[in-house]
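Trying the structure run again after the queue cleared.
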Amino acid sequence: MNIALKTHQNSPENTVTRALEDQCDEVHEFSKDVLTGLSAPQKTLPCKYLYDETGSKIFEQICELDDYYLTRTEADIFATNLPDIAKTLGANVTLVEPGAGNCEKAQPLLCAMTSPAAYFPIDISPEILLAAQIRLQASLPELPVHSIVGDFTDPTSWDGSAVDGRQVVFFPGSTVGNFTEKDAERLLKGFASWLKPGDGLLLGADLVKDSVVLERAYHDNEHVTEAFNKNLLQRINRELNGNFELESFAHRAFYHPLRQRVEMHLVSLKAQQVRVAGIEFQFAEGETIHTENSHKYTDESLTALLNRAGFVSCRHWTDNNNHFAIYYAEIS
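Done. Tokens:
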């Protein structure tokens, strides 16, 4: 098995220096995004910062909740249709997975595919990628795996021009729903820029459904999602010298039918003043910090999104309740 851990930038001679520089850059970006978001009329925090090490572990707990149907339903769709999905992708395909994480969703797909040419997982965490490579080596010893450390929202994180044969971008889960309509279109256009005519995209998407089902998934009785949301405030306190009082904020999640999305907020329970990185921010009672969106799609809206990004929808698979869908589309 060919295991190569790569970055999309040239490796410097002094890797320690570069690692320190990257760490400083990440802290600076986090600080800039937090201060900018909290200064807006509608206070916001980018949802990507929910997924630090602690947040990622809490999210794994969320995925095990009875009310959180998304992960379980998508897994059932794959389990039921895996041979058909693999046949649709075809033989000798290079699979590219943006935001691969621990690669657990790609592994059964790669095992089902006919002679996959290579696998390129992209993630910001080298530690997670290395652990995933070890596991993949055991189950697929002949598969070349080339892990790329990078931000998949950056179109330059992957250059498939040197890859022979067909490529398929694998983007499971409902991550596309975390982006606004314009940003989702921009993201998928970025994926399209990696590909050539005939190459494909295998995309997971959550579907519009009863608001009760949706809101239970994001506001569970066990309060795990609340801990996930509030962990972002703990991270700000820890990394940016903040003084958020977690008990002074409440988790709120609701479905917005006109925008077809679930919104997550942190609601200030009183008038208060919070300091972050030496800057004071005023909160009125009832004022919120908007932390995440999860857009839901109909077949019509998702097909239109794919078309605007340069893809033609070929087919899709869904569950019996039509709660979730996996779409396969190709570059037109």
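Residues 22 and 28 are 10 Å apart (CA to CA). Worth checking whether this holds up in the mutant runs.
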